[in-house]
Amino acid sequence: MKVLVADDDPVSVFYLQDVLSEWGYEVVVATDGLAAEAILRQEDGPLLAVLDWMMPGRDGIDVCHNIRQAGMARYVYMIMLTSRTETEFIVAAMNAGADDYVAKPFIAEEMRVRVRAGRRIVDLEQELRRQATRDALTGIFNRGAILDLLQKEMARQARASNCLSLIFADLDHFKRINDSYGHLAGDEVLREATRRMASALRNYDAFGRYGGEELLAVLPDCDPEHALFVAERMRSVMADTSVPTAYGVIAVTVSIGIASMNAANAMDMTELLHRADSALYAAKMQGRNCVIA
Ligand code: GH3
Ligand code: MG
Ligand code: MG
Ligand code: MG
């Protein structure tokens, strides 16, 4: 796990770096508050930070305050490092958003247990976020998370005047699979189907379960032509190879509908979903195991 160490005192930085890496943390260093804040705001920035109170430019308290105000998607656990240990200073630090504090000069063992307590919080927060956004059966995004992501991505693409494509996929005659092989076999097929279809996507695409055996892929910066190519790949990874399960080898195909949006034809999320759903319906009508844009 990455830990940010922000301190203007090179001796303090050196010591912290030394002990933290010995305890297995990956240390990122900033020597002033501005740099510290910039690092914490990065998309994959550290989730744990040890911040010196007194730093040139922007002090640790301001960094805490700004990070809490920033409304970031992830929680950053911040430990204030301070030589001011009177109650009023501690209250000020924690009011600004610090989670904990360690008195300077610090004792390594105390730093170790306080960072470890922070890590417990960060781990719990990440697990909670995973459970809230992932589908329990397949591990892909759940309905709430994929729709949330679609909404955000549509706004982002509209600002950038980029094209976004949406793929709506539905397994064919899935009820028959449940009826013939049982629901546990159906579950296995669904898991394998999402795994295969996800591998057909680019790594900045998002994939989620809309409901039952209906799946949504959000493809940013993707025109209809390329979306068709991706969807065809998703279709063929299913059609080309049957799925081996504990209950037998099961052939399963998928029907896919595509809708795209760009600056010239802006629309809201409901409209885009509706279009992809209509295309999916047309694919079913055309005989299934096909893609319609
Ligand atoms: P179509 O080709 O028209 O899509 O036919 P279908 O049978 O796939 O369509 P329908 O939507 O009627 O049936 C979907 C079935 O998927 C019904 C439901 O029991 C099953 N299903 C939904 N979620 C799950 C799941 O998590 N596990 C299993 N095993 N089955 C599921
Ligand atoms: Mg200092
Ligand atoms: Mg179906
Ligand atoms: Mg369905």
From TrEMBL:
<feature type="modified residue" description="4-aspartylphosphate">
    <location>
        <position position="52"/>
    </location>
</feature>
<dbReference type="InterPro" id="IPR050469">
    <property type="entry name" value="Diguanylate_Cyclase"/>
</dbReference>
<dbReference type="InterPro" id="IPR043128">
    <property type="entry name" value="Rev_trsase/Diguanyl_cyclase"/>
</dbReference>
<dbReference type="InterPro" id="IPR000160">
    <property type="entry name" value="GGDEF_dom"/>
</dbReference>
<keyword id="KW-0597">Phosphoprotein</keyword>
<dbReference type="Pfam" id="PF00990">
    <property type="entry name" value="GGDEF"/>
</dbReference>
<dbReference type="InterPro" id="IPR001789">
    <property type="entry name" value="Sig_transdc_resp-reg_receiver"/>
</dbReference>
<feature type="domain" description="Response regulatory">
    <location>
        <begin position="2"/>
        <end position="119"/>
    </location>
</feature>
<dbReference type="Pfam" id="PF00072">
    <property type="entry name" value="Response_reg"/>
</dbReference>
<protein>
    <recommendedName>
        <fullName>diguanylate cyclase</fullName>
        <ecNumber>2.7.7.65</ecNumber>
    </recommendedName>
</protein>
<feature type="domain" description="GGDEF">
    <location>
        <begin position="162"/>
        <end position="293"/>
    </location>
</feature>
<dbReference type="InterPro" id="IPR011006">
    <property type="entry name" value="CheY-like_superfamily"/>
</dbReference>
<dbReference type="InterPro" id="IPR029787">
    <property type="entry name" value="Nucleotide_cyclase"/>
</dbReference>
